[in-house]
Amino acid sequence: MRHWSVRHARKLKQVYVMLEFVLVKLAPVISKIGYQRLEGPIFAFEKALKGVLLDSQSCGQCVVGSTGMSCPMNCPKALRNGPCGGVRQNGKCEIEPTMTCVWLMAWEGNKRMAEKIHSIQLIQPAIDNRLMGTSAWLREVRQRVSEMEKGVLS
Ligand code: SF4
User: Fold this and answer.
1) Pocket of ligand 1 from Cβ distances under 6 Å
2) What is the per-residue pLDDT across 53-72, written as a single tens digit (0 to 9) for each?
3) Hey, whose CA ends up nearest to atom 2 of ligand 1?
4) Angstrom distance (rounded) from CA 75 to CA 59
5) What is the pTM of this model?
């Protein structure tokens, strides 16, 4: 399924942006119910959906919007900025020879997104293992709301 998601990266990214927009709009409701209380159910839904579509490993710091809808956590070296220097000539992974390199797919998906500024070129920070198994969506909502409050975004 993750090959399908990369092939349809552009449409999926649009769905992602829409979902983010809706969640940010719902922020006052989310805040009223409580982020802590919603963490469990939203994480369960997010894990199930991303698990099917992206083979997501639920790192809690989702960057697929910048990696052509290819989850970098499927890279055996868990590289957040790839690819490594070991990609085989046939495009397969150095560690898992039956698997297409996750980062090769990421570049392919990113090309399909046809963005003006290629977000795949952004340097991603190292993974924070403390956030594993938490909702990346809720974190994103919190961050966006806080940026809006500070006037970073309009
Ligand atoms: S070949 Fe690709 S998937 Fe395999 S370890 Fe290197 S970057 Fe990760």
Assistant:
1) 75-77, 79, 82-84, 86-87, 93-95, 101-103
2) 899 988 999 999 899 999 99
3) 101
4) 13
5) 0.82
